[in-house]
User: Fold these one by one.
Assistant:
Number 1:
Amino acid sequence: MIKQNTLLFTMALSFLFMAMTKDEVVKVVLFGDSITQAGVQPGGYITKMKEALAKQGIKDKYQLIGAGIGGNKVYDLYLRLEEDVLEQKPNIVVIYVGVNDVWHKTSHQTGTDPDKFEKFYVALVKKFQTNGIKVICCTPAVIGERTDHSNQQDGDLNHYSNMIRNVAAKYDCPVADLRKEFLAYNLKNNPKNQESGILTTDRVHLNDVGNQLVADLLLKMIAK
Amino acid sequence: MIKQNTLLFTMALSFLFMAMTKDEVVKVVLFGDSITQAGVQPGGYITKMKEALAKQGIKDKYQLIGAGIGGNKVYDLYLRLEEDVLEQKPNIVVIYVGVNDVWHKTSHQTGTDPDKFEKFYVALVKKFQTNGIKVICCTPAVIGERTDHSNQQDGDLNHYSNMIRNVAAKYDCPVADLRKEFLAYNLKNNPKNQESGILTTDRVHLNDVGNQLVADLLLKMIAK
Amino acid sequence: MIKQNTLLFTMALSFLFMAMTKDEVVKVVLFGDSITQAGVQPGGYITKMKEALAKQGIKDKYQLIGAGIGGNKVYDLYLRLEEDVLEQKPNIVVIYVGVNDVWHKTSHQTGTDPDKFEKFYVALVKKFQTNGIKVICCTPAVIGERTDHSNQQDGDLNHYSNMIRNVAAKYDCPVADLRKEFLAYNLKNNPKNQESGILTTDRVHLNDVGNQLVADLLLKMIAK
Amino acid sequence: MIKQNTLLFTMALSFLFMAMTKDEVVKVVLFGDSITQAGVQPGGYITKMKEALAKQGIKDKYQLIGAGIGGNKVYDLYLRLEEDVLEQKPNIVVIYVGVNDVWHKTSHQTGTDPDKFEKFYVALVKKFQTNGIKVICCTPAVIGERTDHSNQQDGDLNHYSNMIRNVAAKYDCPVADLRKEFLAYNLKNNPKNQESGILTTDRVHLNDVGNQLVADLLLKMIAK
């Protein structure tokens, strides 16, 4: 009888501990395209976030899950939201999408119309919020780093970023405004008006400085 | 006591009758783009199907529901499949999509990549079949009616039609092969190699003959 | 003898007068696309220039010839430069091109690559200068009048305008910087960030205010 | 006196010889894009033509000049026709262009509109014929070797080939109908409906068999 009680007590404690531990861990899915897919590599922005958390001694409080697939646009995220986000039961999802929706217009004629972009983006946000997941929105950073507004897709990136900001405001989501931050950084650090090499390797994908900038910005928003 | 029995009997009969009636009605959702949106108009292919059923005296056996929205591509169907198909609880769904997935590449730079097209198409078919709905697939008919393979999108329409035929074969869906039928009709009836005016008004949307051709073909597949 | 002398004297005078008259008339070809084609219509910028010259009482000192054809890009100008400019033997040619080179990328997939644009533009300038014709260059004004850099083609228009400014500087041509002037005007007069209606009717073609702005700017450069 | 006569006689003989030699040499400029640029490399179609002439012992009767530049479209040929063709004073020019006019629509949004293609093509033909140069026209062979008409650009390549055939007929130019020949060859030799590897390395540029096919066809038309 005593043994059994002890066992039950131990089990209860374990469950309690597990529950507390579980409560304390903030689970974050980073949901995006090739930039996020690269984010989990050594030097990637998700890897850098984990390293920063480790340094601060709070790495056990956060579980960061990269869910990026190269070439993804907003509707590709919608197609795989159940499996790659909802089933993970995260506390937070970071939506980092939009570059391919604009870029593939010119590279493959398969970009996303602005009205469709907004419709799918809203659908994503609502699905996540309905499931009790906090949504953080990111604006697409750059396709080309020239600072004089002469990158071919600048107009569209600004337009799609405006849409994201508006949706985020309407649905009360914080915004990691990468488009704004990248331009500000380049205005200071790209005096020769280069197309790449400041925050990107190839006008789109992040170099080490770019990964660091994104990691710092997202970490501030997640871990506070 | 007798009265109560009679009442119960009558109710039972009524329910039986309703059940039988319900069983006998075949509910069909026609799921597509502007061609299907126009299909419910006077002279449209869905209207023509209804008229043909009425002539045969079996119009009560079929309920045809048009669910076409202009500009829709395969992923737009995916976004609205719950509301516009599943909630209707149809017996059959006819998927008639693909023209905009190809056409919008050149008109808006927002077409659908072949691999994405196939992925979303398969996702649609599986969702419907999982819900016990029989799926009929249509190939996209034409963007231009020239018969010498010189319409700009001929290559892509053939490619996407091949994908649809393959998916249909794999998932055991009958195919209304509009692409094949339209070319066959034009080879006989378009001796001047015109771009439009034989089965379409504007290279894409159906004229009266085109609507009749689609109505006849689909009716044969649904009502047998 | 006297008669003959008189005749000769009269002829000489006539020729002198013709020569003087000819010397005094400045012949200007305005070489461009649909914007320039519309420029010769009532209310068009070329018509407005003529009206302004008339008001100043110097309309006989300038001959303005509109040579705009809808849909023209830089290489279309090159194809017709002999007939439409050189054969006119003008003193000045105003090159007003670039909108379609950018715009037709998205509307027809038939825009002009930046390097080709520059190559043909330089070829035009050299042909004209070799033939003793003064060249005035215009930057392409707008495709969309939003002032927050979110018009789809803003990046490309800025890029192509930079190329024109550089070519003009290299070949010593004055620049009518319409791109800069239109943005400046919109920043003051387009508080609602509208796409059209301030200087254009449809995001591209000039309304009355737009025609006036272009007329004023070009007149200042030609008639000084 | 005798010495002088001898000298004059020798000079006269030399000039006669040069004149005869010159008369007998047929000078051919092959005017095109990257396919023709590669044609002068070892294994290229122009190199193969030279080797075949050498084998037949008539290599001195023909001078083949490759004038291909990667990425060229019909208007790029027009820009450099003076320097690269007229100044060479050839007897024959082979115009081999059209692939990029179609292909760059999808790869760079900078293809060539059909009506512009025809206009520049006609301008080329007329310039050459006016200068007494015989023109041989080629249709663009392939962008993708699938034989079931499902290569994305098949429709456009057929359309532009039709235009070339019509211009050639109107201006009495023989046609090297590569489009037709390549399809015929693939129908026999591409049973797996592959996209490349039969006559091309990469769907567009010629492999050894493709270079041989073009060399054989053009040689028959030039050396007869």
Number 2:
Amino acid sequence: MSAAENIELKPIGFVKTKAIGKEVKNKGNVSEIVFREDLAEALEGIEDFSHLFVIFWMHKISKEERKTMKVHPRGRMDMPLLGTFSTRTPYRPNPIGLTMVELLDVEKNVLTVRGLDAFDGTPVLDIKPFDKKDVAEDAKVPEWWMKLEKER
Amino acid sequence: MSAAENIELKPIGFVKTKAIGKEVKNKGNVSEIVFREDLAEALEGIEDFSHLFVIFWMHKISKEERKTMKVHPRGRMDMPLLGTFSTRTPYRPNPIGLTMVELLDVEKNVLTVRGLDAFDGTPVLDIKPFDKKDVAEDAKVPEWWMKLEKER
């Protein structure tokens, strides 16, 4: 496979939410992930996890926006100008979203989750069980990042 | 966008590692992520993070393997038969890998990382800064999962 080749994915499902605009950023939001019906079987056992990673496609990002190389985090001019990969901006070459959510309910091909910051109709690419053993306790982040965290 | 539509991604770079076969699972492995040269600018500021999420495309998984609906975790028959989304199996509709790695070094368009369980030549789709505040301290996992964790 060469760098010129493209990778094709098909959504496994779509996000359903009443939140609009900036409301989707609210960590308390409850959304549904409606899976393709042919994939319901692949969800068996998911109810035994309390948290999941959701990997989704930020479909509202345009081709032009995908070419962005640098941003001020959250568009704030008091923040340093940084490479897009050093931030969580949706303006990135492959606008893939990654969010840890709480799993509230499972009904056939529909998962109800809390904390998914994705718009209604967002294509979902994959989900993975979350385990806190996956994560670094001693992770270091830059000062600008901590400043933004504190303001949340 | 309808469920029938496909999503096209272009790799942002590729994994370079000397590890082969099962060696890639070794958490101590050091690999490189060689980014496309046109994306070097988008890495500015990444050196201030100690850990990253790497999202990659498990390119060795065949079209047939992507149709897998159920697996025994790690192929072990003493484990329950579960839906693929309830496991970390690479046999999933969109074989996307997600791994937290330690960032060791940055040189222009090349990141050196520890803990990336991906084969040489694996296309990388995205990277994201890791922050432990993203994760749930109280996450629950099933018994079979804990059993496998203990055996690591």
Number 3:
Amino acid sequence: MKKLPVTVGVIGSGECSEELSSLAREVGREIARRGGILICGGLGGVMEAACEGAKEEGGLTIGILPGTSREDANPYVDIPIATGLGDARNVIIVRSSDVLIAVGGRWGTLSEIAFALKFGKPVVCLKGWDMLPDVQKALDPVDAVEKAWTLAAKS
Amino acid sequence: MKKLPVTVGVIGSGECSEELSSLAREVGREIARRGGILICGGLGGVMEAACEGAKEEGGLTIGILPGTSREDANPYVDIPIATGLGDARNVIIVRSSDVLIAVGGRWGTLSEIAFALKFGKPVVCLKGWDMLPDVQKALDPVDAVEKAWTLAAKS
Amino acid sequence: MKKLPVTVGVIGSGECSEELSSLAREVGREIARRGGILICGGLGGVMEAACEGAKEEGGLTIGILPGTSREDANPYVDIPIATGLGDARNVIIVRSSDVLIAVGGRWGTLSEIAFALKFGKPVVCLKGWDMLPDVQKALDPVDAVEKAWTLAAKS
Amino acid sequence: MKKLPVTVGVIGSGECSEELSSLAREVGREIARRGGILICGGLGGVMEAACEGAKEEGGLTIGILPGTSREDANPYVDIPIATGLGDARNVIIVRSSDVLIAVGGRWGTLSEIAFALKFGKPVVCLKGWDMLPDVQKALDPVDAVEKAWTLAAKS
């Protein structure tokens, strides 16, 4: 079987502060620099910033959209997947990732972290939900991606 | 429009301790005594104990199953719904409840709590995830159901 | 294991002619007279007429809704299940039925017939898609329900 | 908004004859020659043959898998998406395509054709379900892809 590149789910809110946006962009850049594929929910905020960063470094980005139209994707998504499933699409993001990096995030992000841990996938938190048991806390974007790679290699 | 009875999602692990099982059974009894409909994931553990309690008091129970066969339902489910959607069925339990009561629970339960809070539905926690922000902590089964009714009336 | 009543999926368009509506109502009545549970998509047209008929005869009706609110259900649905999954909810109607009766219907109905035949569930067609291979053609509502019962008993 | 390449859903059975396999491979080649993206269910039979053809011509292939593991994808899928949703994933293939080409196919394929027509997406049939109303009948693989491009441009 061919070896797939590491696929990293980047999760976080569809609207976010400048600070989180800047962190997410750097996470996206670092994933692309390492040759990883970035998968996310395809919308704005953290998702858009991460995709933008990945594209700056020539990475590949996938957006798993809640709605029925691929045109809902942010402009940095290469492969938009329209599910029409609403929030149930969160499960698909998790199932299709080797490892997840949460950048801040609220309840939607928590649902994805919970599914990841249920499915035995490692989770790195940069801000946000980093007090949860069984997640890895990251100090900064480079640390987050480094930890994600180490965890993906082990699992 | 006709007024539906209060529908309470009871969430928790498919395998659980005697203590949690006993609490869940009492939660189910109390929901039925108040005329509520109990909805859950339809499997064992907390789900089965809650359904058993509800049936002891003549209540109605619905199980939203992850698999493709209605025969996976525990014997106390009146209305088994087979989804074939795996863990994505958690969203349906939440969407179809007025209020959720979590009895203990691990990651799957956390995903349901997260969806509930995302969708603006109140959550009462009996043990388990009661340290989360925005959930109501219950002291015992009767307190849990009482709080659920109060919150459902407001929302 | 307890024996569940026969669960019949009644499928058809959300808007329909008086003729189809009248046929669907009679299908619903006949299902209820035989003690079956009626499951459907929960909306208008054929779904509403079938539920209305079932309630006239004291039957139980379940509506698996595409949207996020149980209040979208027609007034004759006893148990509304809100999925938020859009048309993907069609799979759940089929998975949760022992046998399906299609009353007229267009593309959505065809998707349900196709899933039913894929899953090995019998399909009875009253008008509409009755030229398809592997479906049973019914002459009238009573014939449709009679055939459904016979097929459900065999499968 | 950036212009996405045409995305073509290629649908058909997971096991198929040499003849259909050969037709599907040529459909995949022709989609790639025109710069289209091929999306499919990611498994064997028609799906695998179409992906193999697309890769021979340097195309990009996406597989929307029913199971929970990306490793279920056939070896010619570039972007495997694991949904864990079973047959409900058919909706996602349709939602994410501009146009669909069915190569032979049985009930699963019919469910996808039905969803496509429900969602207003054009369908080209090469063998199989070409007697259905509202689908375009193709004479051979090149004709199928040509018709798909014409229809996608109009819709």
Number 4:
Amino acid sequence: MTTPAPRLDPALAARLKHDDAGLLTAVVQDATDHRVLMVGWMDDEALARTLSSGRVTYWSRSRSEYWRKGDTSGHVQWVRSVALDCDGDTLLVSVDQVGAACHRGTDTCFDGGDLGAVVLPPTERTA
Amino acid sequence: MTTPAPRLDPALAARLKHDDAGLLTAVVQDATDHRVLMVGWMDDEALARTLSSGRVTYWSRSRSEYWRKGDTSGHVQWVRSVALDCDGDTLLVSVDQVGAACHRGTDTCFDGGDLGAVVLPPTERTA
């Protein structure tokens, strides 16, 4: 079951700068604890569905199909807000996340991914 | 002035999944207030510099050069942590941000970009 394809407002569509595949980067953040949950991809129709339906829909680059988060996993993302960045190529999607955001079952796609970066103490921070 | 080019640990390099341009998506989040500040791009050397130097370095897609945030603006990003996502194609960079993160002078690149998404009230959230 998918919702009928909505269309983007032409004024908004004119502000978008797509990548070579016609996609925008979508950064998804938990509205409550502000953790960054995952990054997905949207074409204009996925964005239009997301803006109009209350739920987040992506374009799957690996499966070449629309993918409404939670339809198979139950881990729905309810939209709280969507913002476009200054360059017009990235979206920030704030959501109420049901269950785990990551398909591995972790809360976020970054859990366990720390790379051990060097962190300078304040006394050594001289730009 | 740039730091000498460091090399990525081979075990980490093997985990990375680059896009067609050899880049990873880098989501940058304020370590204190947890706002998503901006999204940039890194190749392996930009990531190696970021992991080893305490400051965030990007690859500029428009200028085709490395770009250490703050070198011209003074708006330095001090690294607090870097994490790789489950797919190996996206980084989450937590920073202490000096000044405005956006080149327009706003705190984040998403300020003023709200798209007025439909938000369903809890009573209408039936997946």
